[in-house]
Amino acid sequence: MTSRPRPVVLAGPTAVGKGTLSQYIREHFPDVWLSVSATTRAPRPGEVHGEHYFFVSPEEFDAMVAAGDMLEWAVVHGRNRYGTPRHAVEAALAGGRVPLLEIDLQGARQLRASMPGALFVFLAPPSWDELVRRLVGRGTEGEAERAARLRTAEVEMAASGEFDVVIVNDDVRRAAEELVSLMRSQVS
User: What is the DSSP-derived secondary structure letter of residue 57?
Assistant: First the structure.
């Protein structure tokens, strides 16, 4: 008898490389199913609607929440909302696929309550200094936004003990292989 696969929830502090890791997995492990989150923030350069995120208006996001179409959602960095659309994740699970949900700490906590059987993976930076370097280096936020994200990152780093597994993102290829191996082990 085959049991339903466990979803894998990937969270970690801002600028740790969750998006980079997900993109690497998307390109090198096409058999892995990645959930696409919805967000009210504007796309960054190179981001594609429906591939990286579903970029929606605040009104569209509110309607999705009101309809119960989100597994989890949160206001991140006090500004924009992010959430995981329910239907696609449930369809992947029903089809025997292990979904990878790349979300923030607030969302992971919500999912722990609603999907307690999920495997929770914390993506950690090699060091605090490296996290700061990555945030500053990507150049996508102004000074005030960077400061807000670093304050949030301190809280997020302290939560690593809430997770089942910690993967250090010191090398994208190695971290991706470790994560995909964990995901594949979730299928009976």
Answer: -
